[in-house]
Amino acid sequence: MNIFEALRESHERQRTYADALIQTSGDNPQRVEAYKQLKTELQAHETAEERFFYMPLMEYDEGVDLSRHAISEHHEMDEMMEQLDETEMSSPGWLATAKKLSEKVHHHLKEEEQKFFQMAGKILDDKQKETLASGYIKEYEEQLSTS
């Protein structure tokens, strides 16, 4: 498995959880569970992706700007999750923020897959892609187990 395949697996889960989240209403168990799944997935993915995809790409001049941009978007999503954590789930503002988060997740994943992966594919060799995938998966699983 290469790094792109490993990242895409998490991306599919993120899309599913983000879509499920905005289909919920009020302060009910489905909303609580959907948010918990999305937040856990995003946090584990972000940490592992930054360590085993973006940081290695920053070693190359061509990878610096795209890595900074992606990490900045991770930070924006983290801030939205903080806002959700501080808001009552039953309030209309909660769903508005959840929709913004879902839109940001979809935008970020599309940008990664259609733009960043192509650039990274030219920077990294096949061995690096496999090595980074192994590191990413290990870190991702560790992050999930501690959340």
Automatic annotation (TrEMBL):
Residues 3-120 form the Hemerythrin-like domain. InterPro entries: Hemerythrin-like. It comes from the Bacteria. This is Hemerythrin-like domain-containing protein. It comes from Pseudomonas fluorescens. The lineage of its organism: Bacteria, Pseudomonadati, Pseudomonadota, Gammaproteobacteria, Pseudomonadales.
